[in-house]
């Protein structure tokens, strides 16, 4: 067992944590910039360069791999799969299919409209809508590189549970009448599922990498910049006082702070990493990430054009309540993950 664990840790350090890159950037900062990474400026430069390169490498590789898997599940095929399931099974399948769509919350909404107009159960489409920006296979591996396997797996599991529970509640309350009428008036053209060749899939994967990186690179650099500032310039005592483990309202504050931000998990991770390093509870960090990815203000505004106020309010209430519960539970059980 120790041999297997050693191999896993070695691969994790080389492929996910990229300790070799950390050493190279340290050498760059110390030899070229003539700065020590123990100092604020040197540490900030090291944090920014290392995290930026690591995230872009992981993002490109993982999006390519996930897109290859996703190429087997185009929207038409996904609709057919989801159409075969109802009730809790449908919510589970909807949430799981959301994990292979590397979209932010805003880009998930057009797919949500397509599924709803196609007559899929509303609860199933909401399970998809919640899980798609919140959880994906790429985020699992990237989270492992920052926080380790336990926290990464826990994040994915609770994200799926939140998506399944949220979709189930909406389904049970029969909220179909609170979807805007024009959504159901959209013609549902049954497209034929075209089988693609391996060459086509490779081309699709390349285009997805280019498209997604082009869409999120600014948010990643901003997130890394904020993370570097928190990590090296903001005193730990101040961070702990505001959202530290001793503040009973830390989870609430982290959720409120996360909502106005717009980004995906890749831009949020450097900030979460810096907060975690400053002593912020694991539950508070998870709540912050979930609020940014699932409840961002731009996505709420877009969703308000698709559903009526009552359904929108219910969606926000369910997701917010779930995020808060997850935050407090994980803070209470943090000893299991650290």
What features would you describe in this structure?
It contains 17 helices and no strands. It is mainly α. The longest helix is centred in the middle third of the chain and has 35 residues, at 198-232. The two termini are 21 Å apart. The mean pLDDT is 83.
Short description:
The protein is an all-alpha fold and 338 residues long. Helix content is 75%, strand content 0%.
Structural domain count:
1
C-alpha-based Rg, rounded: 21 Å
Can you write the helix and strand succession as a string? HHHHHHHHHHHHHHHHH
Average pLDDT value?
Answer: 83
Topology:
Blueprint (H helix, E strand, L loop, with lengths): L1 H15 L2 H13 L8 H31 L4 H9 L3 H12 L6 H13 L4 H13 L2 H11 L1 H24 L8 H5 L12 H35 L3 H8 L6 H9 L6 H13 L4 H13 L2 H7 L5 H24 L6
Helix pairs in contact: 1-8, 2-3, 3-8, 3-11, 4-5, 5-7, 5-9, 6-7, 7-9, 8-9, 8-14, 9-17, 11-14, 13-15, 14-15, 15-17
Which keywords apply here?
single chain; 338 residues; mainly alpha; 17 helices; 75% helix
